[in-house]
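User: tokens in, sequence out, please.
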């Protein structure tokens, strides 16, 4: 087995042997293990292909077919359904109708006439780059080490010398049909080369078998990485040396948690964004350096990088130890920075746009750099924000390498614009599914480890929100986390232990929300318990427990969340899960019923106070939600059954029969009611009570 220092060799002969004879399966295997190492290619970046002989279903004759990663896929997770399969000769024959660089976009439509497998994914713009090379297996990858050389001022010379002429060079050009022809020409002019470096873009390597291609790719990337490593700090300190010393880890996260909601508010001026924070050592080395001010405005080089990170980041001029507690003073410092960035982006658009360019997009930054602390990324959802941060880290690696061996060069602004506002890129954006109702929203539902709280959190996630799952029951919380990750993905959820009666616990949960997602939008005060006793049997301990969890808990969570909501200045929703018992007087219920009444009026008071800040406060009143609910633990069911003169087993039917609709109420019914308040259709409503009890006339609000 070959050994490498800078990349992972993951080829397993036994697994590959099991796929022997199936070149498409071997393509998928090679793709997946390449994509498993982010030093080889970034998420969604690069492209892989193979050429095989297939029987033409129309003629029965053997024809050459190219299988290639389809548009928008990721090689690390690629499956056969993500491949496009094209008649190779038809693809090459398109050269006969190609009208030149000004007509590149029309060629993409013609790829559809070359489709062999009707179940194919849409072919990507890189398709002709593979099609005009003769090799059976081809990798087009975006390794930081190779792009660093490709983006260096002397990249062509370095490539020639490093590989002794065995790697060709093609200058930067936007991907498309003509670039495929240029790759073919490069090979014809340099027969025997093992790969081609694309200026400011990436790497092409190949082989006659899947294994040969894989090893060739690793060998070239390893050589690039080793060359860079030997040169770091040789001609000058990395990034010009350190200018700022980072805060300690705990201080960095404390500053980031305070700042994130404020930044999120600025970045969400056009639509709600989700945040991501990292204080990775590679990021800190760059943002703390003397060269930050010179390199950051240049922007990135590889198209994959700037498509996800925007033309350049916003660099904050805040001191690393800045007092971030005074929100008004902080916003006064940040406002001109964001205004200048938006003006810069608008000017970039105006200077570079064409007659048929799509309308200008969101002018806010995606990447925000805070020297001494770390990097923030803001995007439409958590995965996109996280990936943007990963891509900017890739860009940092590229700048570091290029500066070590030469001088970093970014793409000219016009070239960057022509990629960002490419009509084909716009068409891809338009094909994406419409955002769900809660996309870009962050929800914290107290007591969401199970029961009603879990059902509410699940509904929010189904509608696009990211979730802060929390509970005081660790085991229940971990089980729910696994379920949410399975259903919604790892980016959709974080977990934290939360005791609603403890202000420090609440503060820590909100800090975790800020670090993971950037803040909070939806707070559902759901955590609760119940005690059913006669007034004579009620103890002071019972009373204090009920009021601590139900009333004080609602107050403390609302108080903590209000600070975050006001820092963001983008509105928000607070929903309090109260009870029919807040409105109905019944036996054996003095503690629980009066606490619920206090919750209801506290909700009204908060609605009145927080309305001017754009924060809506509403109430959902459930009744008799027995399924998977903590309410029914601890003797409550026995107490209610005793009060009504029935058995515990008879409770569900009893509760259903006493309703006007004769319905059993489920946790999902409460979840739907909560969504009704936050889904967008009731955005002008606050201070309301929505009963979800099957119809209990005594609980009608009047």
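Assistant: Sequence out:
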């Amino acid at each position: 087995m070959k050994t490498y220092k800078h990349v992972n060799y993951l080829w397993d002969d036994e697994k590959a042997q099991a796929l022997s004879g199936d070149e498409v399966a071997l393509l998928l295997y090679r793709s997946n293990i390449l994509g498993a190492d982010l030093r080889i290619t970034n998420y969604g970046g690069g492209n892989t292909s193979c050429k095989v002989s297939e029987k033409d279903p129309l003629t029965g004759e053997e024809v050459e077919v190219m299988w290639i990663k389809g548009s928008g896929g990721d090689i690390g997770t690629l499956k056969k359904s993500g491949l496009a399969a094209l008649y190779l000769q038809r693809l090459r024959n398109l050269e006969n109708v190609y009208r030149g660089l000004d007509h590149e976009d029309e060629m993409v439509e013609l790829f559809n006439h070359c489709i062999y497998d009707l179940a194919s994914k849409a072919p990507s713009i890189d398709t002709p780059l593979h099609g005009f090379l003769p090799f059976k297996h081809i990798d087009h990858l975006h390794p930081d080490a190779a792009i660093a050389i490709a983006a260096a001022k002397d990249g062509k010379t370095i490539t020639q010398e490093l590989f002794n002429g065995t790697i060709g060079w093609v200058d930067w050009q936007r991907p498309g049909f003509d670039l495929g022809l240029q790759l073919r020409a490069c090979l014809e002019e340099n027969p025997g080369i093992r790969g081609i470096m694309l200026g400011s873009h990436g790497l092409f390597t190949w082989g006659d078998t899947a294994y040969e291609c894989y090893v060739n790719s690793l060998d070239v990337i390893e050589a690039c990485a080793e060359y860079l490593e030997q040169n770091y700090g040789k001609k000058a300190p990395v990034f010009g040396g350190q200018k700022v010393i980072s805060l300690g880890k705990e201080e960095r996260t404390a500053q980031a948690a305070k700042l994130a909601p404020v930044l999120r508010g600025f970045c969400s001026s056009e639509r709600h964004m989700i945040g991501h924070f990292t204080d990775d050592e590679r990021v800190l080395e760059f943002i703390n350096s003397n060269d930050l001010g010179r390199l950051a405005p240049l922007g990135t080089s590889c198209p994959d990088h700037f498509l996800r990170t925007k033309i350049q980041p916003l660099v904050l001029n805040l001191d690393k130890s800045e007092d971030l507690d005074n929100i008004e003073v902080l916003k006064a410092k940040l406002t001109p920075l964001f205004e200048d960035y938006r003006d810069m982006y608008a000017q970039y658009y105006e200077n570079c746009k064409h007659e048929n360019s799509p309308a200008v997009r969101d002018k806010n930054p995606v990447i925000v750099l805070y020297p001494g602390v770390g990097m923030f990324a803001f995007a439409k959802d958590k995965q996109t924000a996280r990936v943007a941060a990963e891509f900017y880290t890739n860009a940092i690696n590229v700048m570091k390498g290029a500066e070590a061996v030469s001088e970093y060069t970014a793409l000219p602004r016009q070239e960057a614009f022509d990629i960002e506002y490419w009509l084909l890129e716009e068409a891809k954006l338009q094909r994406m599914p419409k955002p769900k109702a809660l996309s870009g929203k962050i929800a914290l539902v107290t007591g969401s480890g199970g029961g009603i709280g879990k059902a509410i959190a699940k509904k929010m996630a189904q509608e696009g929100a990211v979730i802060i799952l929390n509970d005081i029951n660790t085991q229940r919380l971990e089980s729910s986390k696994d379920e949410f990750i399975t259903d919604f993905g790892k980016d959709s959820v974080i977990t934290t232990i939360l005791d609603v009666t403890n202000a420090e616990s609440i503060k820590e949960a909100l800090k975790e929300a800020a670090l993971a997602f950037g803040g909070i939008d939806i707070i559902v005060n759901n955590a609760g318990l119940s005690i059913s006793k006669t007034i004579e049997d009620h103890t002071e301990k019972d009373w204090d427990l009920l009021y601590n969890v139900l009333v004080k808990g609602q107050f403390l969570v609302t108080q903590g969340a209000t600070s975050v909501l006001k820092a963001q200045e983008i509105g928000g929703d607070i929903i309090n899960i109260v009870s029919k018992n807040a409105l109905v007087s019944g036996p054996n219920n003095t503690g629980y019923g009066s606490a619920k009444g206090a919750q209801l009026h506290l909700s009204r008071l908060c609605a009145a106070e927080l309305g001017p800040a754009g924060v809506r406060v509403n109430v959902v009143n459930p009744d008799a939600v027995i399924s998977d609910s903590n309410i029914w633990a601890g003797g409550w069911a026995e107490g209610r059954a005793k009060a009504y003169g029935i058995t515990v087993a008879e409770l569900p039917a009893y509760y259903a029969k006493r309703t006007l609709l004769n319905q059993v109420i489920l946790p999902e019914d409460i979840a739907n009611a909560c969504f009704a308040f936050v889904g967008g259709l009731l955005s002008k409503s606050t201070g309301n009570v929505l009963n979800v009890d099957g119809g209990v006339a005594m609980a009608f609000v009047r």
